[in-house]
Write a structure and sequence with these properties.
Elements lengths: L2 E7 L6 H14 L4 E7 L2 E7 L4 H6 L4 E9 L2 E8 L2 H13 L2 H30 L5 E3 L5 E3 L2 E3 L6 E3 L14 E2 L6 E2 L14
Antiparallel strand pairs: 1-5, 2-3, 3-4, 4-5, 6-7, 8-9, 10-11
């Protein structure tokens, strides 16, 4: 098992709990891993693995990882330990002597396991950059945080409550002439009452 570590400076008033939530969501949704986390005196320790599956274990493609986060003032030290190399070695050995496809799948599992720390570091960087908020990147490349709206005309970011863009005057929120509820600017029919706009 090898370890990789990286230090991050916390900005945007991001809380360690928000980073832990972002990493947990990534591992749950993107990697289909079960995550357990415990708060320690100086941070968090997380363990994640894909559920026990005899096929993944046999082929050496099951992922497992341990993450330790230590917070010192505004610096977050993260150490990621890669786990479950034994099933990859076992599948690779069996594959070399009995069934060569197992050697290929074990190699693929080792590749996925090896790139997991870099993916986790990227999730942590994004959580720090966005202040722990969920963010959507639009085609112009601007970050649109919760509570904001992007003007479809000039791409200026405005508060979500804005009716018009404060840069170009474009209408941001439209209302249905029939029922009066808010609808998207480019709607041809109201999603609430079904009348043409």
């Amino acid at each position: 098992m090898s370890n990789e570590s990286r230090a991050f400076r916390l900005i945007n008033n991001v809380k360690l709990e928000a980073i832990v939530q972002s990493v947990t969501a990534f591992l749950n949704v993107e990697k289909h891993m079960e995550v357990q986390s415990s708060q320690t005196v100086d941070g968090y320790i997380m363990q994640a693995s894909q559920p026990q599956d005899s096929w993944k274990t046999l082929t050496g493609t099951r992922l497992a990882i341990t993450i330790q986060m230590i917070l010192t003032n505004d610096t977050l030290n993260v150490m990621v330990g890669e786990g479950n190399w034994s099933d990859k070695l076992g599948a690779g050995a069996v594959g070399l002597f009995i069934a060569w496809p197992l050697a290929i799948s074990a190699g693929f599992g080792a590749y996925r396991q090896k790139k997991l720390p870099a993916e986790i570091f990227a999730v942590i960087e994004k959580a720090i950059y966005t202040g722990g908020q969920q963010a959507v990147i639009n085609s112009a490349g601007s970050v649109v945080n919760e509570g904001q709206i992007c003007c479809p005309n000039c791409k200026k970011i405005n508060p979500a409550s804005s009716k018009f863009c404060n840069q170009c005057g474009q209408v941001l929120n439209c209302t249905c002439p029939s029922c009066g509820k808010e609808i998207d600017i480019d709607s041809k029919f109201c999603p609430h009452c079904g009348k043409p706009v």
